[in-house]
Amino acid sequence: GILGWVIVIFFRSTVKFRFLVGSRQNECVCMCSQRSSDKDQNKEQEQPDWGGTFCCIGGGSNGLEAVEKATVDAGVPLTEVSRLPPLVYSGEVDRLKSKLADVQTGKAFLLKAGDREEDFTITQGENTEATFRLLVAQVIMLAYVSGVPIVKVNHIGGDFENIGPLNVSSDEEVLRVTKSYYQSSSALNLLRALAKSPTSMMDWTDPISTVDGETHKDLIGRVEDALRFVQAAGLNVFNEDFREPEFYVSHELFLLPYEEALTRSVDGQWYGSSTHMYWMTRGSQELDEAHIEYLRGVENPVSIRVDTETSEASLVEIIKTLNPSNEPGKVVLTCSFGSSKIWGKLPKMIRAVTEAGMNVVWVCDPMRENTIPTENGCLTCPVELIWSEIASFFNVHSQEGTYAGGVFLEMTGSDVSECVGGVESIRDSDVCCEAGPDALPRLNPRQALSVAIEIGRLLKAVSPEGRTLKAP
């Protein structure tokens, strides 16, 4: 009934965002070049190594050594960044990994969404707030429609591609790296403040009415009625556990010197403190690359891009390398094949990973491989193709007896016209390249909300038996 739905949806997936301040979080990190052995759950993890790529930053109570030589042939000392506080904390990373383990077993669903077009030149305050409110609105509707707890990951705070390669030693380069830290910190502070700002959970339904009040008017009314019913039944929807949505952040592992400077040791384990979860593209998946060595050495979950160029054998090998102890919640496979190719590729991937006994979360990225050029030189992504790949993703997993664990959406809280079709019937001639002609198109708020609701209906249709996975 409504009471059961609301208790499951809101009490489990919108809990207080707690700040964990540990006495060891600000320790300086010394990471030298001695290759770490495979992790053993019963042994303290050794220091990570990046194939001798990084020099020792040093630290502790004796003070931080100045780094005058190259990190990844950069020549850029990152001592200032290494002195700064972590952007996220180890307890948050551990909680996310635990929640991803729930996703893997079919007890929850992952919604990873955001705007990858971060830029130093853009004032992000308004867009960051709008996108976060949209994400929470999506989660409310997705959870209500499906009856499944939702894990929220906001793609923000670190994807500054235009930071450029660090190929010279100069004050300008150091300032650019430091600026990426402060801009990320500013974005995260804003998100944390937003999470604490509403007076009740019902405040989060306001953006839904604003975004798409007419199309989903009946559904919005039912959500609000459910919240009022819970309050009348004696559960206070105005307390902090109901009003503060828990969230996590993610970005691509672009700049290893920056990540190394923000790596911290806590109770014998290493954590990347710039983000909760890293993700890596296919271009950084060679087993002997420093990226792999870093990611297998830290506790943070990692999302691996899987596409038509990925082979089953290489995928299994990289999972084993990144997660030698086969820890649940460590590895997320973000699949992007295109609506016309997913049936030919995804079943083989699922069988290979299942037969190898690997613990993974399967996520669909329905946008990257469905982009097409428009006559005006922009890239667009038809909403119909997005929806087609998502539906196929669910159907393939149903066929294979595995669980479709999540979806990754490119979206923005800004009112853009970049994806054709959907509730607004945007045409090719309407497409505007606001983020640049080569940028991945983003769903606008009305499109993003409608897609989330349809995902919720698909998720609801998956029977409890369908969420019981084959044992690895």
Topology (elements, then pairings):
Blueprint: H1 2-13, H2 79-83, H3 90-104, E1 109-114, H4 125-146, E2 150-155, H5 171-196, H6 206-212, H7 217-232, H8 240-243, E3 248-252, H9 256-261, E4 263-266, E5 269-272, E6 277-280, H10 290-297, E7 302-306, H11 312-322, E8 331-335, H12 342-355, E9 361-364, E10 372-373, E11 379-380, H13 383-400, E12 406-410, H14 445-461
Parallel strand pairs: 1-2, 1-12, 2-3, 3-6, 6-7, 7-8, 8-9, 9-12
Antiparallel strand pairs: 4-5, 10-11
Helix pairs in contact: 1-7, 4-5, 4-6, 4-14, 11-12, 12-13, 13-14
Describe this structure in words.
It is built from 14 helices and twelve strands. The chain has about 475 residues and is α/β, with parallel strands linked by helices. The protein starts with a helix and ends in an 11-residue tail after the last helix.
What descriptive keywords fit this protein?
472 residues, alpha/beta, two-stranded antiparallel sheet, 14 helices, 12 strands, disordered N terminus
- Residue share in helices? 25-40%
Structural class: alpha/beta
Report the strand count.
12
Calculate the terminal CA-CA distance, rounded to whole Å.
Answer: 34 Å
Largest sheet: 8 strands, parallel, barrel
Order of helices and strands: HHHEHEHHHHEHEEEHEHEHEEEHEH
Determine the mean pLDDT: 75
- How much of the sequence is in beta strands? 5-15%
Low-confidence residue ranges = 1-47, 50-76, 164-168, 468-472
